[in-house]
């Protein structure tokens, strides 16, 4: 009862106080329905992490990272605590922001410097072993860079360290006159560029501060920048990375612009203004919902920086999409943009250009072909103005590390829709790329018609008694197969497909489990794509789905989770998924957010998750939905589908049929329950990070191409699952007619297993002969 506060009276002006900050843990609660809430929202997203943003009450949280991000986009401590906040929160903000923004990582003349206008901060950092050991005392031909030995004394060290281009350097008689240490010369962009820049990102370039005369720096080893960044983060001195691209006269300009017809949307502009707010390019991450147009944000950033740009994506399909989008939205010429994949190793012509590649092509160090090596030399020998990192949430930390340490780039932009990882590695992105610069509100974008409105539902399918009994007995891997193949789920899927096809929807059914995918698709006479489907067949099926009125439903394994652009799709049905992955759920939803018809009057897209009741799937499903719920989506629970029983050709209607189904599931090889082979296939293709193709002809055998071998009789005899099931049909029927199916079923199963083993042995012998 100590939680009952109903006896408290609201303050008379409560309506103008829509916000509450918990003094204990920095959580902020906002009444989103208040007329003044919108003003607060922008500020809150800048300084805190959005935890949950459903329709009425929003929750945010102040964290060290969120404050780091706030400082990075130019907010000062005083700006943040301008509003009255509890004392504990004021001191938290003060304490955190005190050290933020004081240290920068700067790339100059292909060398990295830790820079600060606070010498005592550099001193403090150099007391740390990791940082001290990363420091480089290079013998400079250029006398303007004078490394100093920091002492631990409090004595000011200003003057010991001078970096080229600062006024300090000028005073010392250096010839270097601009920030980048190159004598004279105008800024790379003329007035028209400045105007364009202003029009793109809404900043007046003239207001931008020029050099701080008190800048001090020390050089660090290329290979150690990642360690130093991490250490600085741990010491609460996260490094900002900003690129003064307008004054970079060392690196050649890239003459690209957005095409005049390109109009960027308001939220795209807002996200870019966070990146370019002070006229420099800040490194960091922009988070926009799937289908909201991250690609164009990246392209606009590249057109603003106008320096050589490296784009890294997760698959070779995405590489081609990025190139195509660059050609579509900007005036880049074919000569200026090159791709680096297993099949194509192009260089751009001229001094500057764009290269689009995959993380694995750049991060992989083994078994490179001669051509790849040459290409890597091309990439590593130059300074990049900008590196665009697509889908940053999926890339393993080691890959980032390699990319960051081998490629020298002045600024980095990470793009993602789902800044969540189940492995807690999200914090690493903060120091590897930079803080989150902007995160859009999904519901807001849907309300404005930029992404589709989606109705989400979880359909509870009770397990049939036979399936449930087996489920309780079986080991975990087979259990999954049992809850995927539950006849009630099968029927729900059939019903929903029929219902939505009838409404004129185009339906995608997702199943991670390839066994279930094939079984459903074949039984329901639908086309399907999984890791084992050839590229040609995939393309053909996707074309049909998009253009043929005959093909309104396709079944996709996880190869279709991301990067697949099917704006025709308006309904998704999920029959099996990757455990509790919030990211996968959101990425899948993303397939319909870009629905072409989203702006039709009253249009809704539909997203169903079919869940077998009272199984582990219920638990996973709840976990999976959390990200979307936090974005404001409400999942309705459907316990009964009206009219399902009346479906004329309802599958697995009789008990006999259901028992047949269970026997085939039980006979299926254990590995059928595995997601492994298709995950790899998916990674190699549309969604993942590594493809054997990416390694070229001499590629390692560590990542075999998509190939599902089951080791079962069916595989050995070359027969497909369904035909095998058919073969056993009559036997199972007979069995089902007999009483007490359970133990007899098992006896039968054992017998069949033995027979299968025998036949497999014989088949092997035949093959060996
Ligand atoms: N400003 C714009 N004007 C017109 N069309 C746009 C604009 N921005 C994006 N689009 C279109 O919206 C669609 C989705 O864009 P894009 O593929 O970049 O989304 P995404 O955010 O990368 O999605 P995902 O995370 O699913 O890959 C594309 O067809 C793109 O052409």
TrEMBL record:
InterPro entries referenced in this protein's UniProt entry, alphabetically: ATP-dep_DNA_Helicase, ERCC3_RAD25_C, Helicase/UvrB_N, Helicase_ATP-bd, Helicase_C-like, P-loop_NTPase, XPB/Ssl2, XPB/Ssl2_N
Domain Helicase C-terminal intervals: 491-645
GO molecular function: 3'-5' DNA helicase activity; ATP binding; DNA binding; hydrolase activity
Bias (Basic and acidic residues) ranges: 735-769
A cellular-component GO term for this protein: transcription factor TFIIH holo complex
Annotated region (Disordered), positions in chain: 729-769
Domain spans labelled Helicase ATP-binding: 275-437
Name assigned to this protein: DNA 3'-5' helicase
